[in-house]
Amino acid sequence: MTDEYAFRPAHTRPIRLAESIAAQLRERILNGSLPSGTLPKQEELMDMFRVSGPSLREALRILEVEGLITVRRGKIGGAEIHRPDGASAAHAIGLTLQGEGTRLHELAETLLAFEPTCASACALREDRLEVIHVALEANLDQTAEAVGNGPAFTRLAREFHDLVVERTPNSALRMLVRSLVAIWSAQEESWAVKASEVGQYPSNEAQTEVLETHRKIAANIYRGNASAAEKLARKHLSVSQDLVLAQYGDRIIDAASPLAIEGFRNLSYARREDTQPLRVI
Fold first, then answer.
1. Can you give the pLDDT at residue 77?
2. Structure pTM?
């Protein structure tokens, strides 16, 4: 049986056996080399790594805490794999920001620096009409139907932002900004519900102005006018942020309430057929 610790050179700390097993399984989960959506049975894993049950179970607990697996107990037990996705990334970042006491106005400043570049990047895509046009037009039609229903309008208007970011070709920028957009959307949708309840949600005319601005941003993306799309997106984002910041700018980001968690679950790519069901950690 393998020792409790796997030792490395003197200048590094010894790596516990469970951590070593977890690292190997983590790599296989992330690179997609495992053949199905579940890990092999525990008996198979024990033979594979030549370890005892306690060491393997500790390794599985590490992966479960990280949100990479869910261990099912009982006769039909096993470990279901959850490859990281945008929802889990957004939730993890949101919880970290909340734990750090990050204020909403700080998130707004960060989004303003990065999100508009996504509109520009979409406009520079040669295949922009094939991958962007249908999704944005469907969203714009749905948003038009929601005018007069504050929370529904905000949800669909925020989805427009997410759809643009989702189609940003740079995967690192896309993942980072989508996470921030999801966190902001959770805050704005909370604001929309409360503003509607007290009769302070913007008028139908103001909602129509937002819709028309989205149409203009989309049109510039379709035409490939990157500078105009980015400039308009930045101006629009700043104006829309001001509505929320006027009331909640100094509030600490919320990533833990039921409403915020539901917002993460409702990321637009949760509806895409080529992804696993989202699991917010």
1. 66
2. 0.76
